[in-house]
Each structure stands twice: as C-alpha cells, then as structure tokens.
Fold this sequence. Notes:
Elements: H1 2-8, E1 22-24, E2 30-32, H2 42-52, H3 55-63, H4 68-99, H5 106-109, H6 128-134, E3 139-143, H7 148-157, E4 161-162, H8 169-176, E5 181-184, H9 191-199, E6 202-205, H10 207-215, H11 243-261, E7 270-274, H12 277-289, E8 293-294, E9 309-312, H13 323-328, E10 333-334, H14 337-343, H15 356-360
Parallel strand pairs: 3-4, 3-5, 5-6, 7-8, 7-9, 9-10
Antiparallel strand pairs: 1-2
Amino acid sequence: MAELIHRCWPKFPHVPYMRSFHTNNQDGSQIEDLDDQAGPSGADCRSLNNSSVDPNQGEKARTSTPSPAAGMNTQLQELHQILDSASKASKESDTNSLSTPRSHSARNIARAPESLDLCTDLVEWVDPVISNQQKPTPVFLLTSIDNQEQCEEMIRSLGGIVCSPQISVSNSVSFEQNATHLLCQQPSRNEKVLTSIAAGKWVLEKLYLEDSKREGHFLNEEDYEWGNPKASYLQKLLKPGSLNEQLAKAVYRWRCKIQITGKKAFHGMKAIICSSKEKAELYKRIVIAGGGEVLNISPPFSEPGCATVCILELAKVQHRVDLQTLVDKKVPCVPLYLNNYLISDPPPDVMDCLIPEYRALQ
C-alpha cells in the first residue's frame, strides 16, 4: 500500500505530502515506507494530522495495535480522501483557469498521468486511404506481352496510365522516360528493358496486373519484381546462368541502388556516341534514361570537349576518327559497354573494355 501511495502522490501536486502512512510488517511491527525528502516540513504534517485525525482515535491507536486487515482498511480510506481532495483541487484550478488564460506550459502537461508516456514511444499512424491518394499514378510500359490490349484495359480500370505506342518516335522517347513500371513476360535485352534498368523503374511479371485487378487496386510491386528475393517463384521461370537471369538480377539491383543513392546508372557520364544511325539513337536513349548526357560531337573528334567516354563501333562509322586525340585527352573508347555495365555485377571498369585500336595507341 505504501508503495502505491508513494507512486501516486506525485500525480496530485495539490495534496500536501503525508508521512503518517505505515505498513504492518509480518512480525506485527510497523515500518515507515515514505521518504522524508519529498515531503513538507514537520509543521505541515502536524497541521494536516490535526485537521484530519481525531485526537481520541489517536489515543486508541497508541494503546491498541490494529489487525493487518484493519490497518489496510484505514489506509484505503485515507487514500480515498486523498483522491477526493486532489479531484476538488483540480476542479478549483480549472475554474481559475477560465478567468486567467494560460499557455500550454510544462506545468499543465505534468498533470497527465505518467503511465500515458505522452512524450515517448509514440507511433505515428498514417491513414492508408490518404497514403494511397498521395501515391503517384503509375505509368506503364509493356513489352513482349500477350493479349496486350486486355492488359492495357486492366491498367486503365485500376487508374493507371499506359504509354501509347501511337506517339511519334521523337515524342515517344520523352514520354517513356516518365514511365514508372515495365511489364514483361521475361526480361530480355531490348531497349525497354535496358532503359528501365538504367532508370531504376519497376520491371514486373505480368501476373502483377491480374492479381491487382482481382484485388481492385495496384498491389505491392516487390512481390512481382524480377530478381527480387520476395518474388522467389519468378526465379524458377529463368534458366540458371542465362542472360534472362542476369537481366532479372540487374533489375532489382539497380532499382535498389538508384532508390538509395538517387543517382541513375549513368549519372555523371558525358558520352560521345559514334555508330550507325540506328544504333547511335538506341545508345543515346539508354544513356539519357540512365541519367547521362550525350554530347553533340561528330568525327573526327579533334575537340572532344568534356567527354568522359566514347562509345565507338569503328566498323559502322563512315568517317575518319581521330583516335590519337581521344587517347591524348584521356577519353576512353569502348564498344558495347552500356549492356555490360548494366548487367555485370560489379560493373566493369571502363579501362578494361577499351577497343584494341585505342589500346594500341596508348
């Protein structure tokens, strides 16, 4: 009982501190459990005792030792009086506060029970409806998908956007950069897969759409992402050691890395691209999707500027290339470097991928 009183007392600052509580020991003796340091002076205690305890009752208490049960009942009654007193004091304080405005100070906050732990261990709860409303609308690309029209209809019915294939080539490039998801039967080395990997997009198995349609909303992507350990069932669809398996691992690896660092696969790259017109456009889109920059510099590259790499396929170039200048300016010339950089783990060093003609001039 004394322990209960000792713990409850700080919660009622309006009640004077009392040292008159005693508990009966097992041998019948009385021990004092409350600390002197927290209480008021002896005069205050005597004043409180004189106002609440009958002198005759005190005399009887000195001549006879109460039973443990009687002592407990007495203490419960006294505790009840304390609580009533605290309640009245609190009401009076609230009444005074109506006439005297006060700010929310630490004094007011201290009245709250300590057991509530108002300032610690709080867990923020976010309304899932609001959370879903704040999530950006997914924009989908599709590649190598059967019944593509049906998939597009499911995307739109769930509130998503489909990248339209009817857009012109120049506009299609910029629009596809805004895509957030790519759906594919299996990851293959085509432009949409490579640009999605370089940009850190979600690359998902088409079952994602079917299950989302069944649930009526877009589901968690991680359970359908190629290469993601949470979607281990997809691993069974890939031949061990195959290019498809390597691409699947690259999907998950690059998305996680880009999500953490905020830097896409080719961040900081300033590339010169020299190949056939068709290939040059493809490489350009991959570099840009990966956050790199393509410099508008043509052969013979006598002034390579600030280039950090030259993607060069000599067999497909019709103009003379000044390799010596590139060597002198320390601009490495590499062939199919972009694919290897995305797929290999870790990515290869650019100096290990130099074309033989460049290496011979070093």
